[in-house]
Amino acid sequence: MDPEPTVIIPYRDGPLVVRGPVRLVDQDGREIEVDRRTIALCRCGRSRLRPFCDGTHKLTRFSAPSEAEDRSSATQRPAS
User: Fold this and answer.
1) Which of 17, 25, 47, 66 is most buried, judged by most C-beta within 10 A?
2) DSSP character for 52?
């Protein structure tokens, strides 16, 4: 049987919710303990529990879409 895939859901104006098995490390490669199968990762940068969400985005009126941005209309950089 195939292992359960990890699913990441960007919630509108909220965190990234991660469901499934995941290994979380900081930028130096040190493991960040994850003791549950569903976690919420901060997107607003204001959580006191970073990298985890503590709901502060609601107080700061953080705004971010839940859907992917349309990259087809993005301006392209000139070739160097």
Assistant:
1) 47
2) B
Give me Rg for the CA atoms of the chain. Answer: 16
- Rounded to whole angstroms, the Cα distance separating 9 from 72 reads 22
How far lies 69's CA from each of 16, 21, 45, in Å?
15, 26, 20
Helix (H, G, I), strand (E, B) or coil at 57: helix
pLDDT digits (tens, 9 = 90+) for 33-54: 999 999 999 999 999 999 999 9
List b or e across 32-45, with b for residues whose CB sees 16 or more CB atoms inside 10 angstroms.
eeeeeeebbbbbbe
Q: Give this prediction's pTM.
A: 0.80
Is there a cis peptide before residue 51, judged by omega within 30 degrees of 0?
yes
Pairing state between β 16-19 and 31-32: unpaired
pLDDT at 60 over 70: yes
User: Which among 48, 51, 15 is positioned nearest to 34, based on CA atoms?
Assistant: 51
